């Protein structure tokens, strides 16, 4: 951190001048960016802010008003303070107009009662400032090396946070957009205390900038995301204003987390990698023309044109707990799935979608029935995967074009994520098996759903958190009762006038009309999504 006026007054070169503070004694913690020696009266136009001005006052005007203006101009450009050496122009003390103006503008004003070479002061202060800048540069370089290594090694969020805690000595947390904690490094503090009432506390901290310090909470908050897709926040708990090094530390960690999410991959065979690359390219629209995807698939022996395309997602019901074992198991499941497709004479693209799912793009001839093909694939895979444990096989809608494959895969992923929690032994699962609650539960980690829920309910949740209110419960009762006010009032154990009063307060807080069916539908979906977020947090 840059030195303060108090730090400079403690320097030996300044102490030899017998310094005395005559104004602005309460502002000695002001930081000094540079020291400037100047005798001219209009020096303010040469300053950029943060300078400590040294002068003997030989060129200052005699008029008290002009002296006061001189002080005002220094303050207006952001000067840190003024040091005047007595003896040449002002013999024993400064004019009262100078002292009064400095007090009014809050500008620290110091006099030196002994002759002091200004060059010794400037050398001492500038040497200290340069040393600080060099130290910050070295620290920034060290952080760059540490987090570059973490990025190259594909470090997990927990490993990244552990490094942040080690380098800062402070607790650090990673949360999603629904204010649910994804990872936490307590730095020796009690984890339960750190996380107590986290959602309520986090909602109260909403800085406008991507990286900012909230003095009320003592949180340094950095948004985490890449390619315009923000998905979380990194929070460093500070006892005071964070140093530049801590700002750089938080931002480098956030960048590493964002890159890790983008670059996360699995160890697979070359064939599975090739298939997975094509599937990923289709899902992310990496190919400018669908014909390019078809050509790449055809090159690996899987024709996509002129076929009915079925997206399939396969998930183990009890994946290995350790990350390396989980990756190995998923790779083996992908290989078994490819073998099952060959046995069933179903050419297909097969590859891992992420750390939990295997994806299959199944192109069927126009007259081939979908259900028998899926049943055959499931039966053969269960025969080949006996030693690997149970799994669920989920299918998306049948599409006719590569352009629609992404939508089909999203459906299959949703179905698989619900079915894996309560499998009932059927050969495969499809989207009609889901209801709204299941769908929202599947999308609980999606930043878009979290953003939607926050937009719909954020003001209400913040109101309840600040006042200890129960209006969120009242809204849920009202919507669950089908907007029947009489029934809702009875379920809430309130008189009708009291219940109606709460509805009016809800409308003011949410800035919406609770008699409007579309508005109520949006609020109901947001409430169901919020319940899904909280259930997931409790289960983890």
Report on this model:
By secondary structure, the protein is of the alpha/beta class. The protein has 20 helices and 15 strands. The chain has helices at 5-9, 12-15, 64-76, 96-105, 118-153, 157-168, 191-195, 198-203, 244-263, 270-283, 290-299, 323-343, 370-384, 405-419, 436-442, 447-467, 471-480, 485-491, 496-510, 517-539; strands at 19-23, 34-37, 51-55, 81-85, 109-112, 172-176, 181-185, 211-214, 219-226, 229-237, 308-316, 349-352, 358-364, 391-399, 429-430. The strands form three sheets. Strands 1-5-4-3-2 form a five-stranded mixed sheet. Strand 9 and strand 10 (229-237) form a beta hairpin. Helix 6 packs antiparallel against helix 9. It is elongated, with a radius of gyration of 33 Å. Residues 320-324 have low confidence and may be disordered.
Question: How is the topology of this model organized?
Answer:
Blueprint: H1 5-9, H2 12-15, E1 19-23, E2 34-37, E3 51-55, H3 64-76, E4 81-85, H4 96-105, E5 109-112, H5 118-153, H6 157-168, E6 172-176, E7 181-185, H7 191-195, H8 198-203, E8 211-214, E9 219-226, E10 229-237, H9 244-263, H10 270-283, H11 290-299, E11 308-316, H12 323-343, E12 349-352, E13 358-364, H13 370-384, E14 391-399, H14 405-419, E15 429-430, H15 436-442, H16 447-467, H17 471-480, H18 485-491, H19 496-510, H20 517-539
Parallel strand pairs: 2-3, 3-4, 4-5, 14-15
Antiparallel strand pairs: 1-5, 6-7, 6-10, 8-9, 9-10, 11-13, 11-14, 12-13
Helix pairs in contact: 3-4, 5-9, 6-9, 10-11, 12-13, 14-15, 15-20, 16-20, 17-18, 18-19
